Amino acid sequence: MVISMTEKISIKNNSSPLRVDIHRALNSAITILAVIFIAVIINLNFAWAAEYIDSNNGTITDKSSNLVWQQADSYHELKNGINWYQALEYIDVKNSEKFAGFDDWRLPTIMELKILYDESRPIKSKDNERIGLPNSFKAGGSYYLWTAKERGLENAWYFGLGFKEEYFNLKDLGDLGQGVKMVRGKPVKK
After folding, report:
1. How many other C-beta atoms can be found within 10 angstroms of the C-beta atom of residue 175?
2. Both 22 and 94 in a single domain?
3. Residue 171, C-beta contacts closer than 8 angstroms, at least 6 positions apart
4. CB within 8 A of 138, min separation 6: which ones?
5. DSSP class of 158
6. 189 in a structural domain
7. What is the full DSSP assignment across 72-92?
8. Does the pLDDT at position 102 exceed 70?
9. pTM
10. What are the tens digits of pLDDT across the range 76-94?
11. More reliable by pLDDT, 22 or 131
């Protein structure tokens, strides 16, 4: 009587055909789950990437909030930090020039900048610090961005992109290289 190698293994391990079938079924199930998992991850990455659309006119549209953002920020153009009053003047000039065809640009709210921020994103500031902006935005801008929120008559809030920080400063100081990233659309508050 000749015994094949697979029969020897079955006899030695005391495997039954039922155990072999269960093992094959489990392997198939694991393979199918792995393929589904990979497909979901790929689709999530495409969905995440498609959330911010480059309009090819210096703006980025955020599909989840319907906000339109300036792709760069004031630092890219001015090569200098600005104070809050200068940020308002910068926006007035851009509105009079109809930047990207619009004249309703404004300072963002703190919440809008929080929504835009994600610590895992690789975009870096002018100082080579990670600032958490989506890839479609321009790297090399300001780390701190002015917001529309005022604190009394003399102070305004700004947002630190690197660690999702909120600070206020005198409106006439731009001592940390603050900039402005203009936005348009219905303000997001909370």
Report:
1. 10
2. no
3. 83, 84, 85, 150, 154, 155, 156
4. 71, 72, 73, 76
5. E
6. no
7. S-HHHHHSS---HHHHHHHHH
8. yes
9. 0.71
10. 999 999 999 999 999 999 9
11. 131
